[in-house]
Amino acid sequence: MKTEVLSGKGLAGMIRERAQDEARQLELRGVHPVLAVVVATDDESTLWYVRSIERSAGRAGIGCRIVDIGPDATEQVLAGVLRDLSAEASVNGIILQTPLPSGVRADNLVGLIAPHKDIDGANPLSLGRLAVGQPAFAPATARSVVEILDHFEVPTAGRNVVVVGRSAVVGKPLSLLLLAKDATVTICHSRTGELEPFTRAADVVVVAAGRTGLLTGSHVSEKTVVVDVGTNVLPDGSLVGDVDAASVSGVAAALTPVPGGVGSVTTALLLLHTTEAARQQAGVLGRPLAAGVA
Fold first, then answer.
1. Which of 65, 53, 59, 50 is nearest to 24 (CA)?
2. pTM tops 0.85, yes or no
């Protein structure tokens, strides 16, 4: 059978256009959306990603301030930067980019990001609000999965959806977003044991475990739609997901590619979240922040 490729590139372009339109409308009202990205690493792949956000923001008419405090930054310095940005009226969205310096724990810092500027849903308050259906920004990667499923008209209401991975960045918030869309959600993780009994019975499988080749053709059936959230860099510098795409292709009903799938949509959503945050902070009339989903 032929496995449909669910590319995120077209959807990402549509979301960027929405962000650009939002930014244009805000500019007419004297509001200039600004995203601040806090960086404390010399990892070249991370710095490349941050530069790509900066370029995308510029094309969409969104200001992007890269706050690079170097790979030797202490937790105290990072905390001060996040507090200052949270209090700065000209900044609408804040991202704390990982990886962080050795010994610095992200979970000690993300709570310092003001929830109304937490455009990547890192603050635990954002996750709590998602859990009870209150307005909050969902982590962009988690929301990307839902946006892709919606874009390709993959039904989730009443369907069996398996999420492989339980991180606070993807697995947990994604399960909440899927529950809000009436999916029957099962979360698998490192202690689950055999994945196959869960994944072969699923209508949709989302893999976000950070393990190359974790999901293979034997884990899926002809009805399964597979969303690969993994981003793993091989020794030769190439990027692959958590899915063994070669063995899944021809078996599953559909599969998102890596690269060109979830990642491209994630970056576009960060821009859209920034414009939505700017609008909310400025009190501009418009589309309200939806409960549970930014």
1. 59
2. yes
